[in-house]
Specification:
alpha/beta, 40% helix, 2 domains
Length: 305
């Protein structure tokens, strides 16, 4: 009897990793995951065996990868927190790459970000570029997938914009709001990633949706769909950050960081390439209007506690 192909998904219990895992399981593939939440209850039950990341024990990390043909890597950090920094995330990912080489993994499919650059003033985008460089210099066959803002049922940014529009009388847009954003559906990203795993050549490609909005247009589209009565105002970025920190104190989370605001305003979440994802954000929003933003999605609760 033929043994099912083994695939590793880092972060199978998180957002993008969850949908990659669902797609692989539906194809009859065997999936194991590396996660910081080994004891976390998941929708996959016993279908997905979980191993700790073991970045500080590279040999054990490599042992957990042995026998796998493909590794889908979604590991990253959204912002620094305590000993969790972007530099540490880069170091950890390099350790993961070396472990995959030692374990005999053939191909890595890495989820990156649009417009990464080693010269970026933003540590998030700079770190992503350093990880991409490490992958391209490794012995692994690779596909590097660069999404923008990923939306879906568990997506934090879109859901929390809707939540703020539902809960508060005012929504503050940093600056002019004319900077652009090109959201991409999480299931489209998962499909692109799994399809890329089965191609023989090395790939670096953006994964973006077919619609481009200014941030102002995006916020107003969400507000219109959920029938929000919030007054949408344009304020200085510093004031927007201050208000976000006040809300963060109430919800015990970091709503948005200074770098995230400045990165958003720098048009880094839009691609110059041809869209490869098919799902229209406007249609998805209309179909999911009763659920989006009904509760706050806490980043610290999901990844740091």
């Amino acid at each position: 009897m033929e043994t099912a192909e083994v695939n590793v998904v880092t972060g199978a219990f998180s957002h993008t990793g969850k949908y990659i895992t669902q797609r692989l399981l539906s194809m009859g593939k065997k999936v194991i995951t590396l996660t910081s939440r080994v004891d976390c209850e998941s929708a996959f039950g016993r279908q997905v065996k979980a191993f700790p990341f073991n970045f500080d024990r590279p040999r054990e990390l490599a042992d957990s990868l042995r026998g796998a043909k493909t590794m889908y890597n979604t590991y990253w950090v959204r912002f620094p927190r305590g000993q969790t920094t972007f530099d540490k995330a880069v170091e950890n990912t390099k350790t993961l790459i070396k472990a995959a080489e030692e374990a005999g993994v053939h191909r890595i499919v890495h989820i990156s970000i649009t417009n990464p650059s080693k010269d970026s003033p933003f540590p998030y985008f700079r770190g992503k570029a350093l990880v991409e460089e490490a992958i391209t210099r490794s012995r692994l066959s690779y596909a590097i997938i660069r999404p923008t803002v990923i939306f879906g049922a568990e997506g934090a940014l879109i859901s929390n914009i809707a939540w703020l529009l539902r809960k508060f009388p005012i929504f503050a847009i940093p600056g002019s709001g004319d900077y652009q954003i090109q959201p991409v559906f999480v299931e489209d990203v998962a499909k692109i990633a799994v399809d890329a795993a089965h191609k023989g050549d090395n790939i670096v490609a953006d994964a973006v949706g077919p619609e481009i909005f200014t941030f102002d247009e995006l916020v107003r589209l969400i507000a219109d769909n959920i029938h929000s009565e919030a007054k949408i105002m344009h304020v200085r970025p510093g004031l927007a950050l201050f208000l976000a920190r006040l809300i963060g104190c109430a919800v015990k989370d970091i709503v948005i960081t200074k770098d995230e605001i400045e990165g958003l305003m720098s048009d880094l979440l839009v691609s110059k390439g041809t869209p490869v994802a098919q799902t229209l954000f406007s249609e998805w929003l209309n179909q999911n209007v009763d659920g989006v933003g009904m509760k706050y999605t806490c980043e610290l609760e999901r990844h740091y506690r």
